[in-house]
Amino acid sequence: MFIHRPEPVMVSPEQALPGRSAPVLPAADPHLVLGTDMLRPAGEGEEEIFLAAGCYWGVEEIMWALPGVVTTSVGFMGGFTPNPTYHEVTTGLTGHTETVRVVYRVDGEGSALPLILKTFWESHDPTTLNYQGNDVGTQYRSAVFTTTPDQAELATSSRDTYDQILRKHGKGKIVTEIVDAADTTGYFPAEIEHQQYLIKVPNGYRCHTKSGVACPMPGSGPLADL
């Protein structure tokens, strides 16, 4: 039986919750897996990218395991409310999407970005607008927030290539947003209890509605089996 899924509507800036001036995560403990500072800026030979692929608990777990990743954190991006809380974002009234910040190495044997993007595309369903599995709302929309021209180029080219492959497999059109991070209101880290959540709660919730279709990324190697 076909079940109609009502389409979530993006809140307007005027209707968004007011938020607050102070961050909900003013300082962070070291990353529980990588031992690095979750909030430090990308250093020499490093870059940062922001990825939204549904519930951020499981996305962060996937990303911190990839080779070349220096640190990760979870937060909110692409909306209007300054320094939102997790609860506020779940209402859909902040405009944000749950997002993982990934700092990765670009020196040595090459950039970790191709594998990061390959894993991003394959670990969720980029053809579903404003939901992943049973998680419904604009806060679960698929997005890539880039910080360099090379990131934007590779994200766009890989999206276009993967879109063609998914269509050949009978899937829908990719709806993932690719946005310059500088054109957003910024990245707002979530509360400390959400950081590396699945280390704290190993049997916690994971939502990954994978398409099951491989995304070719030259030089990226195989997708991590997580």
From TrEMBL:
It comes from the Bacteria. Pfam families: PMSR. It is an enzyme of class 1 (oxidoreductase). Signal peptide: none annotated. The active site is at residue 55. Keywords: Oxidoreductase. Its EC number is 1.8.4.11. GO terms for molecular function: peptide-methionine (S)-S-oxide reductase activity. Belongs to the MsrA Met sulfoxide reductase family. HAMAP family: MsrA. Has an important function as a repair enzyme for proteins that have been inactivated by oxidation. Catalyzes the reversible oxidation-reduction of methionine sulfoxide in proteins to methionine. This is Peptide methionine sulfoxide reductase MsrA. It comes from Trueperella bonasi. The lineage of its organism: Bacteria, Bacillati, Actinomycetota, Actinomycetes, Actinomycetales.
